[in-house]
Specification:
By secondary structure, the protein is of the alpha/beta class. 36% of the residues lie in helices and 19% in strands. It has a five-stranded mixed β-sheet. It has a five-stranded mixed β-sheet with strand order 9-8-10-7-11. The radius of gyration is 24 Å and the shape is globular.
Amino acid sequence: MNVGRVDLNLLVYLDVLLRELNVTRAAEQLGITQPAMSNGLKRLRELFNDPLLIRSSDGMKPTERALDLQPKVRQILAETQYLLEPRQEFKPLTSRRVFRIMVSDYAEATLIPALIKHIRSEAPHIILDMLTPSDVSYQDMEQGRVDMAINRFDEIPQSFHQSVIWKDSFSCLINRDNPIVHNFNLKTYLLAQHIWVSKTGMGVGFGINPEKSGGLGWIDSALARIGKKRKITIFTRHYQMPGLLAQNNDLVATLPTRVARMQAENPCLVITEPPFYIPPFELKMAWSPLLHPNAAHQWLRRLIMYTAERLLEAEPLVHLQEESTMNRPLDADRL
């Protein structure tokens, strides 16, 4: 096939069609008529010799070929946009750019205060719009409406760039007067009442069903692997809460070690390791390929990693229950 005869606008059509999975909405996104978009889909099917989108009872569904093409098309469009954009040097000291960053409550508690301190020093006029996971969809990120997501991701679209900020383990917060403090083992852990805290995914969250152990996260999955289940009395989505709630002498909070250590000066609480193995997790940042070559965005990514490095250097060694990789050299090509 002679690529010179291919209308590259078709790749834009394909990108929007695979995002919207609806011809009418895709046409509205591009500001063209529905018949024009239908004709574009017809030409795409001929070009790739594949139906690409198939009508089903649940709407249009992408074919296997379409799913394979989607991240590649997104990358081509991002690189094309980069080639066509005028090159502008980013000057942090004078920039008034707005960065929209989706952060989990965990990241907001552990990373963001130090990041803001560095930003205020290097770029005092920068504006930060901090969003929660419930505020943002993957589509918002893919289209570049959100600069960055900092979270613990179970899965993420293939087209996104991502980098590991750090690893963290889990610790328990227990009231110093709790009777189990001096005999803390798996048996006493399971007899105790527990505080559950988490909100890691994207989109609006729903209430927890205490009768179901599935979907409760790392801690309960680790217990399920050894055939155990804890008694959860309180469910919360905010990491500020466990430190307050654990001051009750009949509650145990199991949470990331870096969050637990924020209570290190609290005379009422004891920080200790869980009496069973919980795999460490990774805090990551993820961003759209559309923003990958942007100079301001590159600056932000470097500053996030620099901030994380400084925090790691300043803290005592976090017990990861496996070989630590937190202090590995940074791969600049991934940033």
